[in-house]
Design a protein that fits this description.
Alpha-D-Glucose-1,6-Bisphosphate, Chain A, domain 3, TATA-Binding Protein, binds 1-O-phosphono-alpha-D-glucopyranose, binds zinc ion
Amino acid sequence: MNTKVVSSQAFNDQKPGTSGLRKKVTDFQKPHYLENFVQSIFDSLNIPKNATLTLGGDGRYYNREAIQIIIKMAAANGFKRVLVGQAGILSTPAASCIIRKYKTFGGIILSASHNPGGIDGDFGIKYNTENGGPAPEKITEAIFEKSKNIQSYNIIEAPDVALDVIGETDLFGMKVQVIDAVADYAELMESLFDFNAIKDLLASGFRMKFDAMHAVTGPYAQEIFINQLGAPPDSIMNCVPLPDFGGGHPDPNLTYADELVDILYGENAPDFGAASDGDGDRNMILGKGFFVTPSDSLALIAANAKMVKGYTKGIAGVARSMPTSGAVDMVAKSLDIPCFETPTGWKFFGNLMDADQVTLCGEESFGTGSSHVREKDGLWAVLFWLNILAIKRQSVEQIVKRHWLQFGRNVYSRHDYEDLSLDAAKGIIDHLRNHFTSLSGQSFGRYTIKSCDDFSYTDPIDGSISAQQGLRILFNDGSRIVFRLSGTGTSGATLRIYLEAFEPDSNKHHLDAQVALAEMIQIALQISELKQRTGRDKPTVIT
Ligand code: G1P
Ligand code: ZN
C-alpha cells in the first residue's frame, strides 16, 4: 500500500466542544489541518483489526473533499472497511443509526450543524463511538491533547473514490462501501411509527409543510413524506441540499426558518409545519399560526408516547438539559418515572440511555430524541407529532393547550446575544457569580430570588463530574433565569439567557411568551448589567 507519513505541524488551538470541532471552512482548508485532527482521532482510539468506520456529512461546502481525505487516512490507519453515505451524505441521526445497526467501530460525522455553510461558512468534524453517540469527554480531551502536539499523519496515495454510485470499491485492501444514505434510517422510522395511520391523516385533507432549509434532510423528507407516506409534493420545501444551504442559516427557529413561519402564520396556512437543521438533528414544530416550544414538544411527546407504536410499552424515564423548561418534569411526575436534569449537550444523555434509565430526552435548543439512536433526531420528532396528530385528530394548538390545562404551562423563551466580546460575556458571568449571595432574597415586584447556583452534574452512571454548566437564578414561585455561554459559536462569544415562568392559570395561557415573561426579561437585564457591559439593547435571536 502506498502509505505516506506526512510531517505536519500541529496548530489546532481549539478544544472540540460538545459537538466536535467547528471552525471556518478556510481553517479546515489550511494544509494538514483536517488531516492532523483526523489522525488525532485515530491515535486516541484502540482500533481493532477488521474495524469498520461509518462516514458521512451534511453535504456542506468541503464535505466531499474531507470525505476523500478521511477515506484515504482510514486505509492508512488500518481500517478494513468504510461505510460511506452516497455522495458523502449522512444526516447525524442517520449516521448514528448506521453505526448501531451495522455495529461499526464508531463513525466520523462532518457537520457544523446549524451554522451557515459555503466557502465563507463553517465546517465541523466529530467522532461518535460504537453506541452511535458523540464521544465522551475523556475521548474528546484525548483527541485535543494529541492534536496540540501531532507531528505527522498517515495517508495513502490513491485516486479519489467514486461516491455517487452505491457499491463497493477496494482501496489497497480496505473496502469502501457506498450505501444508500436514507434507506436504513427510513426503515427504522417505519418500525417506530404507524405509517398507515399517518398516510390516512395525510389523505384526509390534512396539510403539512416540511422545510429542509436546503440542508441534509431534503432526500430523507422526499423518501419518507412523499414516497412512503404519500404526502403531495408541495408538502416539502427547500429539499434540494446545497453546499451553502442557499445562503441561509439552517437553524430551525422562528428567526432563521422565517420562510416557513410566514407560511404557517399566513393566509390558507397548512395544519402542520416543521423544519430541520443543517445535519438533521434539530426540529421545529408549528401548528396553524402556532409555535410549539421545544420544551413543550418534549413534554407532549412524553405524555403521549404510549399511543405510538414504538413506545407502547411505556417509557423508562426522561431527561432534559438544565436550561430546558420543567414542562417534561410535570409529565414524568404524573407517569411516576424518573426525570434527569443534565448539562447542555446531547452527549450527557448517552450514558442514561445505554443504561436504560431514559427513553426520551430533549433540549430547549430544538433537539428531541429517544433511545432509537444516540443523537437528537429532527425527522423522528416530526414523525412523532404526525403520529400523535393522526391519532388525536385535533389541531396542534388544541393538543398543546389541552396539555397545559392538564399540567400547567411553563412559559419559556431564550434570548441570545451573539458575537459579543469574550471579555464582556465572561464579565457578565463573573459579575453574577460574584453576587450570588447578595442576589438571594432580593425582590423585583412579585418575583423574589430564592437562591442562585452554578449548575454542576454528577453522571449517575459513571460518576464523572461536569462543573460550571450555567448559572441558575431560582425564584420563589418556581420561575427561573439561566445564564450560560455558548460552547458552539465560531465568532466571538454568545450569551444565552433562558427565561421560564410557571403559569398554572389557564386564563393566561393565551398570552404571548414575550409578554408573559416581560418582568423576568427586565430582571435578567438588570441583574446582569447587560446593557452597560455589552452596549446591546436587544437580543440577536429570540426563540
Ligand atoms: C447549542 C445548544 C445545545 C446543543 C448544541 C449542539 O450549544 O444550546 O443545547 O446541544 O448547540 O446542537 P451551545 O451553543 O449553547 O453551547
Ligand atoms: Zn444539528
